[in-house]
Each structure stands twice: as C-alpha cells, then as structure tokens.
Amino acid sequence: MAEDDGKVRLDKWMWAARFYRTRTIAREMIEGGKVDYNGARGKPARAVEVGARIRFLQGDSRREVEVLALSSSRGSATVAAALYRETEESVARREREQELRRNAAFAVPHPDSRPSKKERRELRGLKMRNLEG
Asked: What's the distance, Cα to Cα, between the start and end of the chain in Å?
C-alpha cells in the first residue's frame, strides 16, 4: 500500500480501491453525481482524507464506505480492501437488495427452451403490429 503525503485525488483513490475498473470510469461517475464525499457532491480532484465517508453507486447498488488508508497505486484486491471499511447500514442494504433481486427472479417466466425460428417470427410480428397501431 503506497502511503502518500495525504493528497490523493478522489478518482485515483476510488480506482486504487478497485471500485471502478479505470480512472476514467471513476472520474465519469464522480462528475455524473454518482459519488458523494462527506455528504456533499464529490469532485474528481478532491483530496481524500482518512476518516472520510464516501457514498457511491456501484452497479445496481449504492454503497457507503469509510476511508481507512490512502493509496494512489492500484494493488491486489486484498491491498485494496485494506483501504476502506463498508458501513454496517450499507452492507445490510446491499444484502436486502440482493435478496429482493433473487426473489424477483421467480416472478419472471423462464421458458424451458429458446423459441424456434417460427416462434421468433411470430413474436417479431406481434411487436411490429404493436408499434404500428
């Protein structure tokens, strides 16, 4: 874990903590308003401090973490996990959302097999008729 002199950009820290695959994606998420730093909208060049709380969108779920250490270089997953601690509320919310998604999968019909070519043509025809009229 490369310890810096206390000045690590928010986008760089989020990339080093492995929340986003690239710094570009991290910057776009921050600029898009998907990341809050200590309750305020984050900015990519914001200096991250130990003890700060960061709320962000990752996939379909919103997470909240507390910064434990600073790093400007991307390391292994175990090193990245040492940079933060997810809050208990965030973990509970993610588990609830995961359970809801799992239960919602039962409500969606799952056919036993893929539609045949004839069935695909019929479906396409139905869709086209709905669009036309």
From this structure: 61
Specify the DSSP element, H or E, that contains 69.
Answer: none
**Domains of the chain by start residue, with CATH:** 1-93 (3.10.290.10)
pLDDT tens, position by position, 59-101? 888 999 999 999 999 999 999 999 999 999 999 999 999 999 8
pTM summary value: 0.75
What DSSP designation does 46 have? P
Identify whether the C-beta of residue 86 lies closer than 8 Å to the C-beta of residue 67.
Answer: no
The whole-angstrom separation of Cα 13 and Cα 16 is 5
Contacts of residues 58-66 at CB distance under 8 Å and 24 or more positions apart, as own/partner, are 58/19, 58/20, 60/97, 60/101, 61/93, 61/94, 61/97, 61/98, 62/90, 62/93, 63/19, 63/90, 63/94, 64/89, 64/90, 65/17, 65/90
Residue 1 structure tokens:
């874990």
C-beta separation of 77 from 18 below 8 A:
yes
Separation between Cα atoms, residue 12 and residue 22, nearest integer Å: 9
